[in-house]
Amino acid sequence: MTPPHPAWLPVPAFRPVGSRRVRVTGTGLLVTTVRDEVAAAVAAHGGALVDDGPADLELVLVGDGGSGEFDASGGFGGSEEFTVARAGTTSVRAGGGAGLLYGFHHVVRLGEAAFAADFAPRRHAPRQPIRMLDHWDNTEVHPFMGQVERGYAGNSIFYADGRVREDLDRVAEYARLLGSIGVNRVGLNNVNVHRAEARLLTDLLPDVVRLADVFRPHGVRVHLSVGFSSPVTLGGLPTADPLDPAVREWWDRATAAVYAAIPDFGGYVVKADSEGRPGPFAYGRDHADGANLLARALAPFGGTVFWRAFVYDHRQDWRDRATDRARAAHDHFAPLDGAFDPNVVLQVKYGPMDFQAREPVSPVIAALPRTRLAVEFQVTQEYTGQQKHVCHLVPQWSEILRFPLDGRTVGDLVDGVVAVSNVGLDRFWTGHPLAQANLFGFGRLAWDDRLAPDAVLDEWIGLTFEDPAARGPLRELMDDSWPTYERYTAPLGVGFMVTPGHHYGPSVDGYEYSPWGTYHFADRDGVGVDRTRATGTGFTGQYPAPWRDVYESPETCPDELLLFFHHVPYGHVLHSGKTVVQHVYDTHFEGVEEVVRMARVWAGLEGRVPDGVFGRVAELLAEQLRCATEWRDQVNTYFFRKSGVPDAHGRTIH
Ligand code: BDP
Q1: Which label site among 241, 339, 376, 540 has the fewest CB atoms less than 10 Å from its CB?
Q2: Where is the Glycosyl hydrolase family 67 catalytic domain (predicted)?
Q3: Bridge partner list, 82
């Protein structure tokens, strides 16, 4: 069995069965994309693209549609909606080209169900206007980091030898996938903007134009990460002070040049005053001054600045708990609510630390009611197995988007969902072939955070694997893989314990005595970070009720977050009835056993999935088992030696 198309990205194939007739009505760039999709499907699978006469499926752009036109509200606005109905004929109606494209892909996902029985019109609209993937791609290969920072799927699909690739076929496949799952924005370069990448804004702009041209027919706007000190580094000015008129002029001019080349350019992404990046603090200004400087340059053109809230001091004194890194984003940004221009979107990592397998939801999301927010996820699996481990993250994102804060959910509170992408030049795009499910699932959840994660997984499996007998086992293997990963890694929300630098595999004390702010404080008596108001860093006080009190007390704090919020003795009894140390032992043994089971399920799929996929996943499951075993042994041994408490079941721990 060979993959459905050479690169095997899960762009669902449209298969009009037998003599099915399809009509596409309307004009514009995205309507042409839809018509091309139908024409290609008809050529491959039969049926006909018709101009008039009866049709089994009609895709209709209603009114003039503003087809393909972007609006300034953060996406295609109302033109992203579509309605589907069936009364003898299945019809998709949309007021804009993007809506028609999304409606088409909706029908593709429905498959035969779209033609089975009549149904009344159903309206579909995205929950989030902003659905964005950020690429941490560098134009050049970096000696230590590779080309894609935290990339686990080979080199960049965008860049080679310091500029945009000649051959953009792969980018076109990727753009098509993003259009099919409703992603409407993409960030083209690393948030850590090095010297070489800074040139994308200036002399490499014609290259960026080529990328924008490839994404546009799929309804995706491009964005650039920019360095805050660009007026100095690129413009030769003596300062990048956001209140300096010459600095303002520099940004206005640079931005106008970008829009002259790319009229539908999305805007900028900025990491400032974080991990060594320059920012407004150097000039005694705050982050509203910084963000508004860029927002005002972008505003005349309808652009947006994505300003990251990931601001903290990575050179702090680890002994001083008052500088708790978890507090930093809220401390910096909550006081600025109301100070940001309307075209600023504050991009907030989902947790207060850094993309761990388990963190509480960031309190920043509830703290700025007058500011537009986007929540940021990692599709790239930096801390969740680096696309060597199966770790299906859609349930994690779903849990976060459904989390209630102030009577609303995170999904209600934000204007957008952003994630770091996980693709590269790898044959299967994502290193681990099953990591494609995270990319697909991100788009689906960004469109509608009320979708059930297991339904999204079933959708991906159904669209990707042809043999129906493979579907049940795949689901069994994947749907619980995030909790499995959590079981064999850092326990009870304490986080990190990864190898410093590359962040793969265990190193329990790896970051414990460094200045990065990521500690577990394990000693002979207990473990965990006291973030209470009563005796700790006070972080619990950043939450609204009821969470400020729920998290404050170990009695009410959920088990899975206990060590994020509390330093407790090893004998502390969890709600589960187990002691902390016995929980550590049990989950680590269980986690490894689950990986053994996953490998067994996969072995049963030989011959039911494409050979190349089978081999790659089998190899990676062996690595996952090796690594999970290493995690189990290091974590269990560590806690046994610290606590002196033997395993209640007498299993071997050295
Ligand atoms: C951390 C990564 C680092 C990124 C940083 C960020 O280790 O490579 O630059 O996040 O989000 O998780 O800016």
Answers
A1: 339
A2: 123-427
A3: 94, 124
